[in-house]
């Protein structure tokens, strides 16, 4: 273990020794909240969310599960038992007319496009997605809107009490884990609210994801595939494709976008094994041919692939439900990719065009313009999605030339992803400052149940941020040569300098900083120049190091400050919570 890591661990132990609310020598750090005792059942939204949070798998248990992972098929059967205990049978889910979507990147955007298109037809829609950005109720939407705090509270306690009443004393698990519970809750909400259809986004993988207890979806979709969640899904894109193809059902049409040959062949084989008709989506260009161009509500060239998939999913759903006005067919072309048949080439209808144009999906290629600051928010967290994010960011910068500018990266990465690979892809953006912080809005999340996360410890997330900074420093050093690079000693700054952990400015690269929470990072980046961001007086420790102090002056004087927030949807959610307070209401 490095000396820096040893010092950081020592500082964390020191922080934990102080009562909550008492500051230590660490920059703005307070004691990390421990798991709260379950609240007495009440009817308050925050009480419901706190109780839901007790179903999160704590960090130590999560590691144990990874080492002793059981039969994944048995986990799926367990989900069916929880469904039965909640008062539903798998057959009941057939009423929801489900569109089931998986993929590595773009599956959430595809779902958002699909839901908005079908809502444009006057249909009542349900939409289940993950993760949430600011409030957990965002995961369950009716007609595009998160269910209200009152409805969330009502449905939560109804399901929670039902599962409590039906628990078996012989079973060691009386409650489903966090994501399973929310999936069950979504099924109940959609049935009770009598939606015309439900768009269900897979959590992780497909074959053994708890959403896959659905036996008769109307149509399935697979968005672009890549490497992610390798500890769960496999370490090759072909293994991951096998997991994703697990949502295919006999006789149920499925659509996918162009994929590399290997994973596309796996998807085809999975479909053939169970007699699932699988189609390859033509490009959006093919659907636009001969008509006006389509306008997308989501920015980025990569969204065109997601929109093309969404159009096929929506059209297929309408067709299978005997709806009219589904678009005039054009002459179709055979596919040359693995002999997969090409999906219909058709003229998008007015409701389809309006749906694509009006789609909103926060935290994905989202821009917020605030005076001299422009925030670019994208939850990209795989190599391919970060590449798409970089293309979007650089194209957006070309459109916004405004004199002397400063570019800032705000980054975090979680799970089993490779942060060095992601950071290397971000280097062409030529950032002046790279800022790293954990996915904690504040150092303590005690007052906000929606932001609590028990799957990791404070020690783990801060050490990971320090590792991210070290990866970035090595990339900078490799680009410009080691003879002009050096890492500062904490020196007189002590623990404060360690947790604020800057690297010295590099003549050809970005200076870097680590902050203990998102709030502190945004305070330093914005320097009071964002008219919406509420910035209480910053802890003095935030400017104790020369890099932080000199950088603050640069940020205050710049004509334009462009901030890219990426690497984690949870990070983007924490930033949005602070930049747009209305999302917390």
From TrEMBL:
EC code: 6.3.2.17
UniProt-listed Gene3D superfamilies: Mur ligase, C-terminal domain, Mur-like, catalytic domain
Catalytic activity: (6S)-5,6,7,8-tetrahydrofolyl-(gamma-L-Glu)(n) + L-glutamate + ATP = (6S)-5,6,7,8-tetrahydrofolyl-(gamma-L-Glu)(n+1) + ADP + phosphate + H(+)
Keywords: ATP-binding, Cytoplasm, Ligase, Magnesium, Membrane, Metal-binding, Mitochondrion, Mitochondrion inner membrane, Nucleotide-binding, One-carbon metabolism
Subcellular location: Cytoplasm; Mitochondrion inner membrane; Mitochondrion matrix
Cofactor note text: A monovalent cation.
Pathway terms, separated by semicolons: Cofactor biosynthesis; tetrahydrofolylpolyglutamate biosynthesis
Principal subcellular localisation of the protein: cytoplasm
Top-level class of the enzyme under EC nomenclature: ligase
Top-rank taxon, per record: Eukaryota
Cofactor(s) named in the record: a monovalent cation
Alphabetical list of InterPro entries matching this protein: Folylpolyglutamate_synth (IPR001645), Folylpolyglutamate_synth_CS (IPR018109), Folylpolyglutamate_synth_euk (IPR023600), Mur-like_cat_sf (IPR036565), Mur_ligase_C_dom_sf (IPR036615)
Protein task: Catalyzes conversion of folates to polyglutamate derivatives allowing concentration of folate compounds in the cell and the intracellular retention of these cofactors, which are important substrates for most of the folate-dependent enzymes that are involved in one-carbon transfer reactions involved in purine, pyrimidine and amino acid synthesis.
NCBIfam families found in the cross-reference section: folC (TIGR01499)
Family: Belongs to the folylpolyglutamate synthase family.
PANTHER family reported in the protein's UniProt record: FOLYLPOLYGLUTAMATE SYNTHASE, MITOCHONDRIAL (PTHR11136:SF5), FOLYLPOLYGLUTAMATE SYNTHASE-RELATED (PTHR11136)
Name this protein carries in UniProt: Folylpolyglutamate synthase
